Write the structure tokens for this entry.
Amino acid sequence: MASSNPVPNTADLLPERLITSSERRWLYVMAAILGVMFSVIVVTGMTNMLHPPNDVEKIDPTTLHLQGEFVESNLGAATEPDGSVTVRFIAQQYTFVPQCVKVPVSTPIHFRLTSADVVHGFFVGDTNTNAMIVPGFITDIRAKFKNTGSLTMPCDEFCGFGHHAMAARVVVVPKDQFSNVGPEERVTCGAQ
Ligand code: CUA
């Protein structure tokens, strides 16, 4: 009758020092992985890729229409001396002002938006241009459009009962449609 021996043969066991060194090796690997992940967070954060593009510049939402950058006459697309274009929008329940903006193709575009009331969303269809618009802050986003065409710009942050109907348009046009825009002019879709 064979009786099984409950005590394992000590020759089959790894020496304790081998187990310890193996455990220590895995500990070092884990520490290295954590270190790499932490460095990725720090580096991307410092180089602005994780940094939210809003919350940088502050603005008083109660006086937008009275003074400063977002008065009505300054909204829309403006050409800059360096050839780039700055586009300014106000988001408010439940519309964007202006409702439609023209921008030139293959040109650096600088979007600046702010909210007059609650948090809204800024999203230009078919691109990765996407940010929150928070009252009291200026959302500052840079983009460049490779193709001409009309892009929907819906509010993608729930902002109230009229949220689903809140949208504007960005119409990307050939560059020559912008060549004669003066520095004081602001271009919207109705202006040309
Ligand atoms: Cu504005 Cu949703």
Remarks:
- The mean pLDDT is 86.
